[in-house]
């Protein structure tokens, strides 16, 4: 049951991801990307991470994609009129194919033994996923969490400097 | 996973009942709005179909269904079909996390009166409400008309701006109930609804959700004076109806949320919980209609100014104050 | 409801970062109240702040303090690199004011952004957690994107900012992907835990997750330090960005990239040394060769130095491929020397250039040796050092890098490196030929050496010469610094 569900979601995710890059109309691409994000959120739910799922939808599908759609609409980009560059496409295909074969070869011949972290599914269910994330964020990852605020400040300064009419 | 057939049957019954209730309520809200507006403006309003015009919603639906379903020649057909559904479905989904009554016990089976008791219910609501924007935006885009496009862009900008202050206004609620679960939030208000502790957050939330419903004084995406009808200018028949119903479902859902977050949910003296919840929700719906009958529309820059420069800083300030008070009292 | 106990935090290791961040924020506020004609004061304040921080960082030499439950560390390695960053920032601040005044873009936000860049770089060098390193890199990169596009009226600067941003964001994706895979393979983002896990479970190139993680992380860093074939952004960004910022970003961020890459490769991925060592061998050869050969064909002096900067990344990669103490100490030494000589060269370019980024071709240096002999001498020293001639810092740096490779047994790598150095002499010498052997076509009346630039030039010349003549005083610090790794 769960495997079947996973298979369906994966199929949708892959198809919508392909649509993102093949759609001629930018809005369709953006909508396909939103669909992909939904599929990712579904994965998080299946992995007992409801908080991540909610944040995935809220931040990516909700906030970031809204901005992208906003810009597309504001510039009123209908169908993009770029030239076809067949030789570059061919080169990309060759590199992609080579990487694919290489990766497949490595995956089949290697093993991936992984250590288990301190939190498994039952502990997450018992304490609560959101609580665990909050606790980790303010204990183990306190410094990275604080650096993020500097990063956002820098981004805001940058946006003001580069975009404001008169500074 | 093995489930008791009785449980499944109860769940299905609950689902059906909620679905029916919300849709009917939405239809009658349209009627109520027209009657109340008429009353405020000293008119009569629709009173011909059935006693007091009570069958008017039915007549409206028949009219919408039998009308010609026009698609503009230059429109993006698929998106044009998709947009009304995208506007209505997130609103309906949000209702699944709202607890509308105390858990019932029927024949030894406990039946929680909400569809899905998610432990991230509040985030689920925020996530879906940020998705609800796309209906407006895509509708405006797909019509391929300048009024629709302008309406769609306005809708996007407005919803992003107010999404922020709405989310921030809910942070104190989470801080006080210490949970994202709607059930926990309601339980935490057993003795005292949060509106008593958080009047500021409630006001910010109220203004923000009014903007989320795109109701006067925030109805710029459809401002009929300048944009004909904004994002749904080109829609006709039941597709237009779907946008319309979506808006009223939204009012009910957001009313239910306001009740859950700030007004104590289904808690209340004497009357049964479901009745209390309905009273609070309908009071919010009445407030929306009242506002529409009373207030003029904001100008666009005023709208942005209010959202970014007043509500958001206030909400942040409120979070700080709440944090300090909780820290000092703990 | 149990309360979270926040672990005891020792702020000493990130005190420099805190000071610089606070100073940057204060400058942002001060900037509002300063008239646009008096922004020079902001440069003085930030320069003093940088010097003060350098004193503080220097006083931490020889200590080893971990903090934030292992997310950041204060050790000699971090201290050495932090000094390089502060030096780059200090010199860049000295040359920024006059240039920005001339180009009419002397906005006060420049200095806070430089300081934030330094904060990001410091976190990269001091971070012992993948998260810290990544966020440090992002703080650095985002500030640099803005600095590259800082001259808003100039389309080339806009192009530089946009290009840098797009390719930088793209490369960040690689880095993050690699970190995620590494985390998946080892179950931790702490470098030390990754190392122990990899050691215990015997993870080497047979473990696809671990290997792919390392490769993608390396790719991400290769973008940042402009290694061929990830160098495409470099010439355009270096040419378009305001010249002081080009100077800064060719020295500081490159060193930061090397700092983080060294720490990761040597501590977290020693079990994969056979793999990354060979990979770096190839990358080093490619980088040196492509950088030098392309530089031969350039006329614009900023583009020449951009390609030369690619080539120098290649030289430093030689030391990284070697991965032994001589090679890695060589990188530390080389990054310091490169900071002196490259920023010095850019200072001269600023003085020779005219408003609107014009007068920046090699031909425009014609006769500089007759009109401004001191400037020409300084430029000659920098160019000699860049081409690696004794008795300058560049020579000693290359000497250690290549001898590290020879110790490791990479004789051919060293040979290719030396050949490349020889080839590079051509385009450095070309500038000197124009300075001394062509008649002046212009009077260079606009070239006025202001006090801050003079200070920068003096410091750079002194640094280049002292490191070249008595390298041991710094080299012993460099060797001390890499002992922990």
Task: Walk me through the structure.
Chain C: Its main location: membrane. Chain C: It is an enzyme of class 7 (translocase). Chain C: Residues 128-421 form the NADH:quinone oxidoreductase/Mrp antiporter transmembrane domain. The complex is a heterotrimer of chains A (167), B (330) and C (485). Chain A has helices spanning 2-22, 26-46, 50-75, 86-109, 121-127, 129-138, 142-163. Chain A has 167 residues and is mostly helical. Chain A has two domains: 1-80, NADH-ubiquinone/plastoquinone oxidoreductase chain 6, subunit NuoJ (Four Helix Bundle (Hemerythrin (Met), subunit A)), CATH 1.20.120; 125-167. The radius of gyration of chain A is 21 Å and the shape is extended. The model of chain A has no long low-confidence stretch (mean pLDDT 83). Chain A is built from seven helices and no strands. The N and C termini of chain A lie far apart (59 Å). Chain B is mostly helical. In chain B, 68% of the residues lie in helices and 3% in strands. Chain B contains 13 helices and two strands, in the order αααββαααααααααα. In chain B, strands 1-2 form a two-stranded antiparallel sheet. In chain B, strand 1 and strand 2 (109-113) form a beta hairpin. Chain B is globular. The mean pLDDT of chain B is 81. The model of chain C has no long low-confidence stretch (mean pLDDT 89). Chain C has 485 residues and is mainly alpha-helical. A two-stranded antiparallel ribbon of chain C has the order 1-2. In chain C, helix 1 (15-33) runs antiparallel to helix 2, helix 2 (40-59) packs antiparallel against helix 3 and helix 12 (301-322) runs parallel beside helix 16. The termini of chain C are far apart. In chain C, strand 1 and strand 2 form a beta hairpin. The longest helix of chain C is centred in the middle third of the chain and has 32 residues, at 155-186.
């Amino acid at each position: 049951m769960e495997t079947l569900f996973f298979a369906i979601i994966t199929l949708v995710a892959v198809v919508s991801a392909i649509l993102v890059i093949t759609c001629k109309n930018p809005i369709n691409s953006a909508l396909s990307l939103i669909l992909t994000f939904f599929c990712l959120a579904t994965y998080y739910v299946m992995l007992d991470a409801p908080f991540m799922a909610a944040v995935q939808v809220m931040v990516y599908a909700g906030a970031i994609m809204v901005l992208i759609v906003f810009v597309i609409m504001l510039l009123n980009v209908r169908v993009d009129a770029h030239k076809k560059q067949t030789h570059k496409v061919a080169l990309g295909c060759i590199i992609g194919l080579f990487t694919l074969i290489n990766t497949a070869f490595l995956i089949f011949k290697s093993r991936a033994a992984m250590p288990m972290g301190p939190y498994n599914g039952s502990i997450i269910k018992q304490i609560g996923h959101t609580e665990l994330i909050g606790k980790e964020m303010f204990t183990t990852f306190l410094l990275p969490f604080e650096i993020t605020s500097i990063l956002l400040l820098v981004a805001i300064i940058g946006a003001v400097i580069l975009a404001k009419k008169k500074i | 996973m093995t489930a008791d057939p009785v449980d499944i049957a109860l769940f299905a019954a609950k689902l059906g009942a909620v679905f029916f209730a919300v849709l009917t309520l939405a239809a009658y809200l349209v009627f109520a709005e027209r009657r109340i507006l008429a009353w405020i403006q000293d008119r009569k309003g629709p009173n011909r179909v059935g006693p007091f015009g009570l069958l008017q919603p039915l007549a409206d639906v028949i009219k919408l269904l039998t009308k010609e379903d026009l698609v503009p020649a230059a429109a993006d057909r698929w998106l044009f079909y998709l947009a009304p559904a995208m506007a209505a479905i997130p609103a309906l989904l949000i209702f699944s996390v709202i607890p509308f009554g105390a858990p019932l016990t029927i024949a030894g089976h406990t039946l929680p009166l909400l569809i899905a008791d998610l432990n991230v219910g509040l985030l689920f609501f925020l996530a879906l409400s940020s998705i609800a924007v796309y209906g407006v935006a895509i509708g405006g885009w797909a019509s391929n008309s300048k009024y629709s496009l302008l309406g769609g862009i306005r809708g996007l900008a407005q919803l992003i701006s107010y999404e922020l202050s709405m989310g921030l206004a809910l942070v104190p609620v989470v801080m006080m109930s210490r949970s994202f679960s709607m059930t926990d939030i309601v339980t935490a208000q057993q003795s005292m609804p949060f509106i008593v502790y958080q009047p500021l957050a409630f006001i910010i939330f109220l203004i923000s959700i009014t903007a989320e419903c795109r109701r006067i004084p925030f109805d710029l995406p459809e401002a009929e004076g300048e944009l004909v009808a904004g994002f749904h200018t080109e829609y006709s028949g039941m597709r237009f109806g779907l946008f319309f119903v979506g808006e009223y479902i939204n009012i009910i859902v957001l009313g239910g949320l306001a009740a859950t977050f700030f007004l104590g949910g289904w808690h209340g003296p004497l009357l049964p919980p479901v009745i209390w919840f309905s009273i609070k929700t309908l009071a919010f719906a009445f407030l929306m209609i009242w506002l529409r009958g009373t207030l003029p529309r904001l100008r666009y820059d005023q709208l942005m100014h209010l959202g970014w420069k007043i509500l958001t800083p206030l909400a942040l300030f409120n979070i700080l104050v709440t944090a300090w008070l909780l820290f000092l009292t703990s | 409801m149990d309360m979270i106990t926040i672990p005891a935090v020792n702020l000493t290791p990130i005190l420099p970062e805190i000071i610089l961040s606070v100073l940057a924020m204060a400058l942002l506020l001060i900037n509002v109240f300063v008239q646009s004609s008096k922004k020079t004061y902001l440069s003085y304040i930030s320069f003093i702040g940088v010097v003060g921080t350098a004193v503080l960082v220097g006083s931490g030499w020889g200590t080893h303090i971990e903090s934030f439950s292992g997310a950041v560390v204060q050790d000699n390695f971090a201290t050495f690199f932090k000094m390089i960053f502060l030096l780059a920032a200090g010199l860049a601040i000295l040359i920024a004011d006059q240039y920005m005044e001339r180009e009419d873009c002397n906005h006060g936000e420049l200095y806070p952004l430089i300081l934030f860049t330094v904060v990001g770089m410091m976190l990269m060098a001091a971070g012992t957690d993948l998260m810290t390193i990544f966020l440090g890199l992002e703080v650095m990169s985002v500030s640099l994107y803005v600095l590259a596009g800082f001259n808003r009226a100039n389309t080339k600067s806009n192009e530089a900012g946009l290009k840098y941003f797009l390719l930088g964001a793209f490369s960040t994706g690689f880095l993050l992907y690699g970190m995620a895979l590494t985390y998946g393979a080892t179950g931790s983002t702490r470098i030390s835990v990754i190392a122990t896990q990899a050691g215990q479970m015997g993870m080497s190139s047979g473990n696809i997750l671990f290997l792919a993680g390392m490769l993608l992380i390396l790719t991400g860093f290769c973008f940042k330090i402009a290694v061929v074939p990830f160098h495409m952004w470099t010439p355009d960004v270096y040419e378009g960005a305001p010249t002081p910022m080009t100077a800064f970003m060719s020295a500081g961020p490159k060193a930061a990239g090397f700092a983080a890459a060294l720490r990761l490769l040597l501590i977290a991925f020693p079990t994969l040394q056979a793999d990354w060592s060979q990979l770096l061998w190839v990358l080093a050869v490619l980088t040196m060769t492509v950088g030098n050969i392309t530089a031969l064909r350039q006329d614009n002096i900023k583009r020449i130095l951009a390609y030369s900067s690619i080539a120098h990344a290649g030289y430093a990669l030689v030391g990284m491929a070697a991965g032994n103490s001589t090679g890695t100490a060589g990188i530390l030494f080389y990054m310091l020397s490169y900071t002196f000589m490259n920023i010095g060269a850019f200072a001269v370019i600023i003085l020779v250039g005219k408003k609107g980024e014009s007068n920046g071709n090699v031909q425009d240096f014609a006769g500089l040796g007759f009109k401004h002999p001191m400037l020409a001498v300084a430029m000659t020293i920098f160019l000699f050092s860049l081409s690696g001639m004794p008795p300058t810092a560049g020579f000693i740096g290359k000497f250690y890098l290549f001898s590290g490779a020879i110790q490791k047994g990479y004789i051919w790598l060293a040979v290719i490196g030396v050949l490349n150095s020889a080839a590079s002499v051509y385009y450095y010498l070309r500038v000197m030929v124009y300075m001394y052997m062509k008649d002046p076509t212009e009077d260079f009346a606009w070239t006025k050496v202001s006090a801050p630039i003079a200070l920068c030039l003096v410091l750079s010349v002194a640094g280049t010469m002292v490191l070249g003549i008595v390298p041991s005083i710094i080299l012993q610090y460099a060797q001390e610094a890499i002992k922990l790794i």
